[in-house]
Amino acid sequence: MYFASVVNSLFMRLQLPLFVCILISTLSYGQEKKDILLSTLQEELAREMTALEKANQPPYYLDYRVTDTNIISIGASSGSLVRSSHDRNRYLVTRIRIGSRQFDNTHPINGNRMNEGWGVSLPLDDEPDALHYALWRATENEYRRVIENYKSAQASKSEEKTKTPEDDFSQEQPNTYYEEPTVLPSVDKTLWEKKMKDFSSYFIFDTDLIRSDLSLQIIHERKYFVSSEGSSQVQNSSFVYINISSSIRSDDGDMIPLHRSFFAPSLEQLPKDEVIIDEIKSMLIVLKGLKTAPLANPYSGPAILDARAAGVFFHEIFGHRLEGHRLKSEQDGQTFKTKVGQSVLPSVFNVYFDPTVNRFENHHLNGSYRYDDEGVKAQRVSVVEKGILKTFLMSRAPLLSFSKSNGHGRAAYGSSPVSRQSNLFVETIKPRTSSDLRQMLIKECKKQGKEYGYLFKDVIGGFTLTGRMIPNAFNIFPTEVYRVYTNGKPDELVRGVDLIGTPLAMFAEISAADNNRGVFTGFCGAESGFVPVSAVAPSLFVRRIETQKKPKSTIENPLLPPPASNRNTNNN
Amino acid sequence: MKSRSLLALFFCIPFVTQAQEYDLPLRAMKDELERNMKELVLEGYERPFFINYGMNDEFQFQATASMGALLKSNLSHMRTKTSVRVLVGNYEFNDESFDVPGALGVSSNMELALPLDDDYEGIRRSFWSTTDMVYKGAAKKYKKNVETLAEVKKDLKELSHRRFAQTKPCTFFQTENSVVTNREEMENYIRSISAVFKKYPTIKSSGANLYQVTGHYYFVNSEGSIVKKPMSLISLAVPIQIKSEKGELISDAISILAPRFEELPTAEQVIRQVEELVSSLLEVQQAPKLEEEYSGPVLFIGAPVADLFEKRIFSSEDRILANNSIAPLKGFQFESGNAGNKIGKPTFAEGITIKVTPKRKTFEGRKLLGSFEVDAEGVEPAEETLVVEKGILKTYLSDRSLTDSTQRANGLGLQQGVIDVSFANTSSLPDLKAKLIAQAKKEGLDFALIVSDFSAGQGGLSKVYRLWVKDGREELIQQVSIKPISSKDFKKISGATTQQEVHQWRSGFASNNTISFIVPAAILVDEVEADTGRSVSLKEEEYVTNPLKK
Between β-strands B447-455 and B294-301, what pairing exists: parallel, antiparallel or unpaired? Predict the structure, then answer.
């Protein structure tokens, strides 16, 4: 699993604000019939189900999920425009289930769940013959594949059903929902190309900077879902994402990266240019500090995780271990499988996931949606209340004690859904102030005989391993880390630190949280591709964390100064 | 319609020019190259003696359609550095002269992408970053080569090594409008062609693909070469695959190249070609099979002739494209690709003459798409290079990197453009067929094979005929697999038609490189092996009826 603010553009998307969806849906009654793609999906699905009923192995379930994306992508690097594209794609994922909900073609064999459908391109034009033909080809291919899977599963049914006694597919209520197609707002590409170049040009005047990349992505997405159970949903989403990354060379040749990002549902809702420029200027200051910052040595001791770092920390070490489908796998560590009803965090903590909200204070959230990728209505799921584990994030892959989905079956286009995180919220019922946390850090450092503790101010992402064959560990990638001294010396920026550990040991060390929640917005990559997520968390005081040295990327000084510094050349 | 050439300048003589005379990318490349030649030095190492920069500035349009609807349509503008070459040492012995093992630890973290717009400083920055990286590697490599040479204690002349050819600086400047303005028209074109398959719901895979590249290639070097040349090519591919009732696949494709969209056949004309090819494939599907392996004479007609010569010239064990590999100095001695120097020796059937005429623009009124004036290294090839004369090899096709004292940089190693194959003694097609029968009779065969209408690059032989010895009847049979013809067997070409034809296709790695073959319309090869091999696939049940079978 990987959580990052830097991801491939193809995986970026977000729901439109809730009020827009409601407004559109109330106006759209009667327009649905004009949606040729929807009607073709419904017709072909009905035709296929009717025809396949006569097959030796008739399916008990079939769904089509189509993602129609429009992506504008602009990239600038060190003051130059290096990418400008506009692409449109339509991807279809077909899922077919043979057998019964209790035992079907997806049943795990030797603890590994059988694969479901992969994506294929669908015609971009609303041309019914071409659409029917493409859907038929995809269904034929998928049906051939799942028959083989079902035969494999059946061949070892008695043994496998004992190993994995849970049902394979949950029973859910069908849902219908329709949003009118949105008129894509016109984008002044020339203006945005210039803006990105201008933003990027702030990085070319410092010869210590190695390279700086900025990207703007404007994505409009229209998702279709129809199933043989009667579900039919069409929902729109859009988002805009600016990512800024730069690296500076330290005196010893170490390449030190720093990242910033902005996210909004539309161009208009992005921060003003001045705000972005201020952020770039602040990046340059931090980068300059990092250039001469000391290289940190491995450390074990007290630390504060600032809100954004705490959000990633919870997403990696906690959130991934609550994803229900993992608990069906015998290969997974199943950290929390038997801990429902038990204390897993200090009693002052609540944790929930809520894809139904799209804002937190003045922040837009990235993990919002109305229906998940299995057609189940999005729900708020309270996973931890006062430190007690209550439930898991569920797709339509049931567990013995949790037989229903709670609207967290998610996938990138081209992949089949599994249970994934949405908007993660961590809160404390006993908040402390930031200053309290600092005092607690200093006090604990003294108690442990440490000269300093660490403040993890910002991170770019992280990953966690949940399997049994390898250490069940996590790694968070901080980009801005300070030493907080016990003797009153000013905080000192350091470089080359990764935050590592194992989950249960780390949870036991979380002592307090403050009243200032921050938001990390990014994309999470796992089995079903990259999905947009957010993490809202307070800053945390942790009695003991562990760090290791980052892998070093060394780079030599260029022999000549960059040509931009020779302003007297003949640039007319 | 695109506007034609706006300006063309061409001098391949020593020529002093002002960078300001050219457009901005060339000026930026030239200025940065000159700065690096003047100032670049790594302490303790030698300076570069040669630098060149190459850049492609291209618009690529790709569209795919199926059953009358677009599946994909992408238009992208790309600028890529095709070459940043920095040589340390001298023309005879430099960093590229030996292949010595071991990494030199050069980081690529500095690499900066090229700007898409005419950003003078951005282009310079991009070349600056790559030059720095390449030079550091080259300087270290040269030092290592010098040490290796000293260690070997042999004269350089005795050792297999690469030298860098000295060539005349070249100035070539030509500009064309390359902006794609007819995207919608091209999308409709591909849609309408693909819609023909609605009539053929049993065809297994069908669709139409259009790929267009327009733009310019830029090149400068420290010897004074300055090149800007347009690139413009469009290719249409319509692959067709039919499955027989027994599950056997038969495939072919319509494949058409043109310099620009306006010169492609109309959609109606292509649809007619598709319909003809489909009926031809259906006919082949019903034809009898070759029951056993065949060994004997084969008459090749049409594109298969060009395909045979392409394989012989570029891929065979004693190809005439110069081999760039050298024997390693130490350790295990690998076989090099060139089976010794064959210059002056008979390598083809007596009577075959091969000339490379890269600047030739037309053949019998047809445009030669491979035609070029200057290669990617800024070398101007001769109007005509005689490669094989009456079966005797005269020269290899070489770029500037030479591995043998007999090689000359003739500007034909990276692209060849137009290859003209002719025979001393020719005859008519009926005469060749008569000769084929006589040959088969002599070998005691009941029939001989005729292979025609091969779609190059698609891997199918759509039309193979048995020519019966007893009555001269031509019988269409199912596809066969022709085994590669060895260089030895290539000397056994016993006849060719007087009439020549042009066959051309994309070749090499560059997006717009095309090769044009002018070859006899048919040739008779005395010894060819063919087997019944065809792709077999299991019969697949159709669970649900194809929705187009209405």
Answer: parallel
> What are the residues whose beta carbons fall under 8 Å from the beta carbon of A275, sequence distance 6 or more?
none
Q: Does A18 touch chain B (CB under 8 A)?
A: no
- Measure in Å the smallest separation between the Cα of A129 and chain B Cα atoms: 7
- Average pLDDT, stretch B299-313? 90
At residue A486's C-alpha, the angle toward residues A480 and A492, to 5°, is: 30
A124 closest CB neighbour out of B42, B70, B136? B70
Q: Which of B51, B543, B549 to mutate to test the interface with A (most CBs of A within 10 A)?
A: B543
Alpha helix ranges (H) inside A211-352: 273-292, 307-317
H runs (alpha helix) in A245-294? 273-292
Contacts of B499 (CB under 8 A, 6+ apart): B429, B520, B521
Nearest Cα residue in chain B from A122: B71
Q: Nearest CA to CA, how far is A122 from chain B (Å)?
A: 6
Token pair belonging to A264:
């909004």
CB spacing of A84 vs B191 below 8 angstroms: no
Task: List Cα–Cα distances, A437 to A304, A434, A469, A564, B490, in angstroms.
Answer: 7, 5, 37, 46, 84
Round to whole Å and give the CA distance between B491 and A109: 60
CA distance A49 to chain B (A): 9
- SS3 percent helix, strand, coil of chain B, rounded to 5, is 25, 35, 45
Size of the A and B interface in Cβ pairs below 8 Å: 159
| Alpha-helical regions (H) of A355-400 | none
Strands A176-178 and A232-249: parallel
Closest CA relative to residue A423, chosen from A519, A513, A488, A507: A519
Task: Please report residues of A whose CB lies closer than 8 A to that of B193.
Answer: none
Report CB contact under 8 Å: A558, B115: no
One-letter amino acid for residue B506 of the chain = R
Nearest by CB to B548, from A82, A129, A560: name it: A129
Model-level ipTM above the cut of 0.90: no
Question: Three-class SS of residue A84?
Answer: strand
Digitized pLDDT (tens) for each residue of chain A, 572 residues in all: 444 443 333 223 222 222 222 222 223 334 445 799 999 999 999 999 999 999 999 999 999 999 999 999 999 998 899 999 999 999 999 999 999 999 999 998 876 776 776 789 999 999 999 999 999 999 999 999 999 999 998 988 777 667 678 899 999 999 999 999 988 778 899 999 999 999 999 998 777 888 899 999 999 999 999 999 999 999 999 999 999 999 998 888 888 999 999 999 999 999 999 999 999 999 999 999 999 999 988 899 999 999 999 998 899 888 998 999 888 777 777 778 888 999 999 999 999 999 999 999 999 999 999 999 999 999 999 999 999 999 999 999 999 889 999 999 999 988 889 999 999 999 999 999 999 999 999 999 999 999 999 999 988 877 777 776 777 778 888 889 999 999 999 999 999 888 888 877 788 899 999 989 999 998 998 888 999 999 999 999 999 998 888 777 777 888 999 886 544 333 33
Cα B371 from Cα B376, distance rounded (Å): 13
Per the model's pLDDT, the better-predicted residue between B282 and B440 turns out to be B440
Minimum distance, in Å, between the CA of residue B110 and any CA atom of chain A: 6
Return the H-helix or E-strand segment holding A234.
Answer: strand A232-249
> Which residues lie closer than 8 Å to A39 by C-beta, 6 or more apart?
A33
Q: Is A120 on the interface with B (CB under 8 A)?
A: no
Contacts of residue B60 in chain A, CB cutoff 8 Å?
none
What is the torsion angle, in degrees rounded to the nearest 10, for the CA atoms of residue B15, residue B16, residue B22 and residue B27?
120
Angle between helices A189-201 and A273-292 (to 10 degrees): 30
